[in-house]
Design goal:
Elements: H1 3-31, H2 47-80
Helix pairs in contact: 1-2
């Protein structure tokens, strides 16, 4: 496995995780009885709702990306016998 495989595996899993996290947060937001569509950029959205939704989405997306990247790195390590070069001590 080379650096190109890691880029595809690491980046792809992080993007997919962020998309899934956003969908989960949207569903949780709806179940909490909030407005169905929240656009933090919309000036008609109350500040507290915009900030709460943005914070929740950011936290969920960040946590999902970390988890997905760690899983991808573990898979890479198991398959290649070592971590990707970018994750090794002193890697670029």
């Amino acid at each position: 496995m080379g650096p190109l495989v890691w880029r595809v595996l690491g980046t792809g899993s992080a993007i997919l995780a962020s998309i899934v996290a956003n969908k989960v947060v949207t569903q949780l937001w709806k179940r909490a009885g909030r407005d169905e569509i929240v656009d933090p950029r919309d000036p008609r959205t109350p500040w507290k709702d915009a900030l709460a939704f943005a914070a929740l989405t950011g936290l969920a997306a960040g946590a999902a990306r970390v988890a997905a990247t760690r899983k991808a790195a573990a898979y890479y390590e198991k398959s290649a016998g070592h971590l990707p070069k970018q994750m090794q001590k002193g890697g670029a």
